[in-house]
Amino acid sequence: MLPEVVEVMSETLLSTFGNPSSIHSFGRHAAQLIRNSRASIADALAVSERQITFTSGASEANNTALIGYALAHRSLGNHIITTAIEHPSVINTVKYLHERFGFDVTIITPNEDGLITANLVERELRSDTLIVSMMYSNNETGQLLPVKEVGALLANHSAVFHVDATQVMGKIPVLPQEIGADFVSASGHKFHGPKGVGFLYHSDVLFDPLIHGGEQEEKRRAGTENIHSLVGMALALKISIDKMETNFQHVATLKAHLFDQIQGLDYYKNEFGPSMPHVVNIAFPNVNHDLLLTKLDLAGIAISTGSACTAGTIEPSHVLASFYGEDSAKLKENIRVSFSELNSIEDVDQFVLQLKKALH
Prior knowledge:
GO terms for molecular function: cysteine desulfurase activity; iron-sulfur cluster binding; metal ion binding; transaminase activity. This protein is α/β, with parallel strands linked by helices. It has twelve helices and twelve strands.
């Protein structure tokens, strides 16, 4: 987290102990902090404050949008479209809607060139399509998806458009009304805020709450608010947006420097079309990525293989499987390197040094 975020969260923990639902002065002070945080985030997205609902993160925001809207509008349609490269909080949620409630789900796979286009969505659109869900940028490859084109495509269709903007929030402008999104999800920790907090933008559509109880969040999400995290998230997003252009250029420089420094190594990129510079997915032929991750971890370098560890078994990346096929040897060769503006050229040099050692 940014030092300023840690500071404001610590101050809030020390000074704000009232329940924001209480009407005494301590409660009103807490409620004011929440209103200020909501106003700050709404301003960042150029939307109304009542269109922001706070959540525990993007996974809850994705679930709320998909399950909440699908169950509230079953009479309007039974078909959901998403892509094969979505985050598990989308993929597993639409599978849940299919298995438990009988929704018909279409999962779009990339073209041969690895791209997911608006045309692929258009081909699958039906009169009973209720929701189209698409990430803004992929968390494993950085690939940018055509959200604005899909938003335009859906402008004259009854389906709502859900965009998982977790990977881009605070890094590039995210304006829901400009991209035609009815729902936008985000997580605080992706822009140097606290973990375990996020938000859902929603247009003026109705959806069922996932969490029932009190009347918090205008009855959209019950439960006493996580005040210090909301304050921290709002400040982190404001700082990220204020420095957005400078930060983006710095990260682009780090990515370019990385590829300059690994010239001569035997590698290939898992990069498909326009991408965010914050995520680099590269692979080394015939080098097991789990072994490479372990060696780099021992050297103090944190990377990912894009795998998810579930019940003690390591699953290949479903994202790369959608590009190469589930039996491809390439699923055991890739590593994912993530940058932010807090990284330096020296960090990249140290990574490359340790990478070369690990490869030999």
